[in-house]
Design goal:
Blueprint lengths: L10 H13 L3 H8 L3 H8 L9 H13 L4 H5 L6 E3 L5 E3 L8 H18 L5 H20 L9 H13 L12
Antiparallel strand pairs: 1-2
Helix pairs in contact: 2-3, 6-7, 6-8
Length: 178
């Protein structure tokens, strides 16, 4: 952990491996029980360089490890969504990835709908969900790093959509013309 209570880049693999050690399971056994290829799980214990595990990966790992006596929260902290002791504090809550304000999501969805209508785009519900997910993940990253985003207006959301598309962050979602 660094001075802000965040994982340093090298912390996640070592901590995850130590937690797996408490379960008594091998990498292959964990991967099999999660229904993942062993190479996918082993990446998080080996070459993973990001500060936090993706929440969508941490949750199933936490659920599995809990069955073997590991506190679920110990894994969730590695995703920045558990409760982590901060320097000088008692246990203090970390932001949860599921606590994106409803008005923020509403502005994102409305901006997306307007962009689709204005651009004559054909975007599947799955692609729309992926785009909203990008916005929610951005919000979560901002909160985790101590930056509380201001209220999001529809025009701001449309601008963000444009920038995300320009920089390829939407991974092709919503770029298919009707």
């Amino acid at each position: 952990m660094n001075a802000r209570g965040e994982n340093s880049e090298s912390d996640v693999p070592a901590k995850l491996k130590a937690l797996r050690g408490k379960t008594g399971l091998s990498v292959r056994e964990v991967a099999e029980q999660l229904g993942w290829p062993a190479s996918t799980y082993s990446t998080y214990e080996g070459r993973y360089k990001k500060t936090y595990l993706p929440p969508e990966k941490a949750r199933p790992i936490a659920d599995l490890f809990q069955k073997y006596g590991v506190d679920r929260n110990e894994v969730l902290v590695l995703a920045g969504i558990g409760i982590s002791a901060q320097p000088g504090d008692a246990e203090s809550p970390r932001p949860d990835a599921n606590l994106v304000p409803v008005d923020y999501i509403a502005a994102t969805v409305q901006a997306l709908a307007e962009n689709i209508e204005e651009g004559g785009l054909s975007v599947s519900p799955q692609e729309q969900g992926a785009i909203v997910s990008v916005f929610c993940r951005w919000y979560n990253d901002q909160v985790i790093h101590g930056r509380k985003p201001q209220t999001l207006t529809i025009s701001d959301a449309k601008l963000m959509l444009s920038l995300l598309e320009q920089f390829g962050a939407l991974s092709g979602a919503g770029k298919q013309n009707a």
